[in-house]
Amino acid sequence: MGKVQEFEIAFDKNKVVYSPGESITGTVTVKLGQQLQCKAVKVNCNGFCGITSKENDTAWTTEEQYFNSTVSIADKGTLKQGEHKFPFKFLIPASAPTSFEGNYGKIVYRVRAFIDTPRFAKDYNTEKPFFLLSLFNLNQVPDIWGTSSSAVTQQFTYMLVKTGTVVLKAQTDMKGYTPAQIIQVTANIHNQSGKSTGNIMASLMQRVTYETKKPTHDMRAIAEVEGGTVKAGKEVEWKEQIIVPPLPQSCLAGCELIKIEYFVKVSLKSPDVMLTLPLHIGNVSLDKKLKPSNKAAPPPSSAPAEHTPTPASAPDGSSPASAPDASASATTPTLPPRRAPKPAPRPAPRARSSSHNNTPSAPPAEFYEGAEGGAPMSDGVPNKRQSLLVSPNAFSYAPGLFFPQNQQPGGSAAGLGGPPFSGSTGATSLYPPLNNVSPMPASLVLPPDYDTSAYPQEAPPSYDESFNT
Q1: Which long-range contacts does 447-456 make (Cβ < 8 Å, 24+ apart)?
Q2: pLDDT digits (tens, 9 = 90+) for 117-158
Q3: How far apart are CA 452 and CA 447, in angstroms?
Q4: Which domain holds residue 97?
Q5: Based on the domain organization, do 99 and 121 belong to the same domain?
Q6: Which whole-number Å values give the CA distances from 79 to 8, 126, 271, in the listed order?
Q7: Pro residues bias: where (predicted)?
Q8: Which of 61, 160, 170, 179 has the fewest CB within 10 Å, making it most exposed?
Q9: What angle do CA 274, 275, 276 make, to 5 degrees?
Q10: Same domain, yes or no, for 34 and 151?
């Protein structure tokens, strides 16, 4: 087995994920089969970012170093046979960015140990990586509150003949999400042409920019959902949801070479129309308690004086300002209270058109069945619940993947000392049904609530009709 039988690095408490500004401590273990002459035993801790213009290439064209510290844990001498343990400790800078690994670059942190031997003797070295997570708090992003919306108008051309236009409007319910949260996508398609459109699709996109001499853009579709078509001259409101899979955070604060962006792309296959809705992916979800209030200004104190009560309630010797109102109300005849007419019989329940659709945000497969302007699902056009195009395991250097999605601002990063990829091995477990309620089929949609709506629109029955019935 040679002189060196064991040479390894161990972190205290088997911790593998750290935060900026934290200390990393551990032990270097050397087990020798016989004594070994050495000049020094050193431990190094460093962090850097390297990028390239070739996919999966480790010959970096540009590098950026965040810290590089080396300490000597044993001086020149002879290491006796047996086991030796050398403790070490390093301080991680507070400005170090989050770990990341992509196709054209990565941000790496590691601890290395070296045994320098005399000339013509074999040197020994070992290393162990660790991960750094700088929490990205969505509540600290400027202009994060509200919805992300956009609209586009596209000319519809068929056989080189312009047949009309298609207006596409879309929005998301928020601008920031954490893994396992749900993106509510709402799109309105107005087909002002004489031909049906293609299927509508919403995709969660990731774009990573590597700042080489000529920037490299790596774009991929993470997940997508697909709906039906819109017939000629019809307008349809389409609602769907995308569950955010484990993803690296949007902001790599402290890194100047890699930039990560996310957006939802809503598109039609025919005509070729597309819009994007930018959003952020973070580690700390939005807290509604921190949302700035937009309360309306209270009415002026003089406003109630314009609506003076009737003379019966006005006291004697009222001010001159109230006298005109009192005389005016005195000349107005007082009518006896009228009884409310008997309501008309409630009509039978009827299905609503797709332009006023109030179905859940994740409609079942029967959503387009019989809807105005929507293609029947029996035509072979499935309404996908979610298609995950990229496996979560592809993001091996994203330690935020296994963080709980309900982490509150300022909370401790629980579970950092666990296994590094405990949340990346089972992506399907992150997709529970919304509020544990299965979608309601279209056939079970209840009739409108006539207490709060404008129904019925028919005139109320006359007195004779009411008496006869």
Answers
A1: 447/346, 447/349, 447/350, 450/343, 450/346, 455/347, 456/343, 456/344, 456/346, 456/347
A2: 887 778 899 999 999 999 999 999 999 999 999 999 988 776
A3: 12
A4: 4-132
A5: yes
A6: 16, 17, 75
A7: 334-348
A8: 160
A9: 135
A10: no
Distance CA 376, CA 6 (A): 67
Name the domain count of the chain: 2
- Kindly state whether residues 153 and 202 are assigned to the same domain: yes
Instruction: Let me know if residue 65 belongs to a domain.
Output: yes
Residues 233 and 373 in one domain: yes
What does residue 227 show for φ and ψ, rounded to 5 degrees? Answer: -120, -165
Q: What is the CATH classification number for the domain harbouring 183? A: 2.60.40.640
CA atoms within 13 A on the CB side of 134: 18
pLDDT, one tens digit per residue, over 393-424 is 555 444 444 444 444 444 434 333 333 333 33
> Given this model, what pLDDT does residue 58 score?
82
Instruction: Give the pLDDT of residue 370.
Output: 33
pLDDT band at residue 392 under the 50/70/90 scheme: low
* DSSP E strand stretches across 33-159: 36-38, 40-51, 62-74, 77-79, 82-91, 100-101, 105-116, 124-132, 148-158
Query: DSSP character for 366?
Result: G
